[in-house]
Automatic annotation (TrEMBL), chains A, B:
Keyword Lyase assigned: no
Site (Cleavage): 187-188
Species for this entry: Garciella nitratireducens DSM 15102
Active site positions, chain numbering: 188
Enzyme class: transferase
Name used for this protein in its record: Arginine biosynthesis bifunctional protein ArgJ
EC number of this enzyme: 2.3.1.35, 2.3.1.1
Pathway: Amino-acid biosynthesis; L-arginine biosynthesis; L-ornithine and N-acetyl-L-glutamate from L-glutamate and N(2)-acetyl-L-ornithine (cyclic): step 1/1; Amino-acid biosynthesis; L-arginine biosynthesis; N(2)-acetyl-L-ornithine from L-glutamate: step 1/4
Cellular component aspect of the GO annotation: cytoplasm
């Protein structure tokens, strides 16, 4: 696998995109993106588990039943959630407008929205906006699309990799919209992955589902997602590699590349948490099961108290113990070791569940970095997981407390 | 039932208390309390469900098995959690010292701690401190005890009520130590209730357990508690009312008074959340079950985004919908109505899951108050619940990020 620097989704053969300002956002920022696949693509998706689902989520759920997908339309600024029958109608109109402009059938179009809940979309701006975005589709439009899906994000999130399958170079690239909100279980998260791999739909489904669990779900707690969360992958087969299916030997090579793309985007989302001054990785080792490893890691990275301690560069490991203790997973926590720092250069602060004397200044140096690694060794099994998050800052409270203003 | 203004636990016949500075806290603040019952009392308790239990919790669990209890010793400043065998030894020594000073047996003494996790208690200060506190026990010491159990709390939490049972006045009074940390599922919560009621132990157990569920557990999420959480009730029988047991007609009268005491203390804890500028009550009506009512109400009151919106006086009801949607309970949320304000003077912002046009200025007036009431009507059943919390402020991040400094 190799990383393709500065490349994005429109560098994947067969994909065009655009991102424009339609007028939904009053700030003048780009607020509408269209992604188009020249060939019919197969799709897989992970949609929000929140019981309150935004209108675009409901419409996209429906259209994901079609055999193939050719376009995705995304707007920022208005979430089109809690908007009733009119909201559904508007999401459907967005789909129809894209289908009309691109001369494809409605069911080949997916729709996604992010922004304020409870406001109706200004369709008099959205519909001409879609027309404009469709007319601007190009092989250079990926970065504009990456920009148009953002809300309070401070940087565009995009990544591209190449992997060789059966002698053919296959590209995977994604763009994402980050945690508008710092708290993992409320992040509105959008991610759109394009690949030219030739693959069976069932395998694409399986691999994408698995990949989401260890990437986006490790920043956004499963079952605790926002009204609009959506991760979608389209595969158009244009790499012309030998068809990848459940019996192919190359599965792991593709899976590794797909996992990399999703994890990198997930990390960017964590890094760009609203108001964040630092971001952190929690590496959890030797858990009794894969799922418990995830639950423990997520519990630590989601703790307000841990987040605030990281903000204050305070080596308050008791809060990590506390977050492990109330996590909904079983393990004997009297064996846990905790370290701050990276694998090569770390300082142990807890041994067998009990605090050690440690050099506070050295740990403060580690915690003063913009990236903080917390290593937890449960010494109770063979499984590991990583979770990502950011600190809790004054700035977060300020942004989050005045979101609508 | 009548409220007894300015009365506290030592106004319940037969109870003495004291609160002193032993030297655990460097600030010179009171840090050690002893509560003593002249007569042997029966006890009931709710202890933390965190898998990481502090040493005093483990020792108290053991001593709660005895037939009767006569004393509780509590220190603030050091939680004696994650302190290993030495921590257990120290908690036991605290018990022994109280027993020695008061000439009672060890198993009649309960022990409780709150403060920083991972530090050993300075026993050279604690043991003389206990001796001093025991020598100062008095019928006026309740308020000193209420003060000595505090950490970052800004006011003493105490309440007392009287109820007549079989012609005899029965008193119930409690003191509590609040949410050092604003986030409900991490609040370290201590509560000590004294009553002179004459009651069977099984009934006391049952009523206290029920009462905790709708009071302290509605600010501190069940199963998500800190290493040191503890709520204890002692009943010494000195009111000489006819014995209350499962067959008594007066149960509901006593229960009402007990619930009042616990809920008032729970509300004080919410009000005094770390760095809080406002506190809020979430009143949830017409849920399909009692438990789902609790889960939905707690989900809203625990949401960082709702808390930050309340801080910013932002009528961002979408965040309330979102928190209802990811709550782990079932209900058709397309029927939900949401109001801000109190029952008599409220403004509806959501009807049947969809936002209404409302007077933003009027809602802002409501949200600018120091107490904010959020009313949620699920219109899906007969059950209701209330939950309490506070806003998320700059001040919280500041205090929480520098807790150890």
């Amino acid at each position: 696998m190799k990383i393709l620097p500065n490349k994005t989704i429109t560098d994947v053969s067969g994909f065009l995109a655009s991102g424009i300002h339609s007028g939904i956002r009053k700030s003048g920022k780009k607020d509408l993106a269209v992604i188009y696949s020249e060939k019919e693509a197969i799709a897989a998706a992970a949609l929000t588990t929140n019981k309150v689902k935004a209108a675009p989520v409901l419409v996209t759920m429906q259209n994901l039943k079609s055999e193939s997908i050719q376009a995705i339309v995304v707007n920022s600024g208005v979430a089109n959630a809690c908007t009733g029958a009119k909201g559904i109608e508007n999401a459907k109109q967005m789909v129809e407008q894209v289908a009309d402009c691109l001369h494809i059938s409605n069911e080949k179009v997916l729709v996604s929205s992010t922004g304020l809940i409870g406001t109706q979309l200004p369709m008099e701006k959205v519909l001409p906006g879609i027309e404009k975005a469709c007319s601007k589709l190009s092989h250079n439009g990926g970065k504009d699309a990456a920009e148009a899906i953002l809300t309070t994000d401070t940087f565009k999130k995009t990544i591209a990799v190449e992997v060789e399958l059966g002698g053919k170079p296959v590209t995977i690239s994604g763009i994402a919209k980050g945690s508008g909100m710092i708290h993992p279980n409320m992040a509105t998260m959008l991610s759109f992955i394009m690949t030219n791999v030739k693959m069976s739909k069932s395998l694409l489904n399986q691999l994408f589902k698995e990949s989401v669990v260890d990437s986006y779900n490790m920043i956004s707690v499963d079952g605790d997602s926002s009204t609009n969360d959506m991760a979608i992958i389209l595969a158009n087969g244009m790499a012309e590699n030998p068809l990848l299916d459940e019996n192919s030997e190359d599965i792991s090579k593709f899976k590794e590349a797909l996992d990399f793309v999703n994890k990198e985007l997930a990390k960017m989302i964590a890094k760009d948490g609203e108001g964040a001054s630092k971001w952190m990785e929690v590496s959890l080792y030797h858990a009794p099961s894969k799922e418990s490893a995830r639950v423990f890691a997520r519990s630590v990275v989601s703790s307000n108290l841990v987040k605030a301690a990281i903000f204050g560069s305070d080596a308050n490991w008791g809060r990590i113990m506390c977050a492990l203790g109330y996590a909904d997973a079983d393990c004997d926590l009297s064996k846990v070791d905790i370290f701050f720092g990276n694998k090569e250069d770390k300082i142990q602060v807890v041994k067998n569940g009990i605090g050690l004397l440690f050099d506070e200044n050295k740990v403060k140096e580690i915690l003063d970095q913009s990236f903080v690694n917390i290593i937890i060794d449960l010494k109770s099994g063979e499984y590991q997981a990583k979770a990502w998050g950011c600190d809790l800052t004054y700035e977060y409270v300020k942004i989050s407390g005045n979101y609508r203003k």
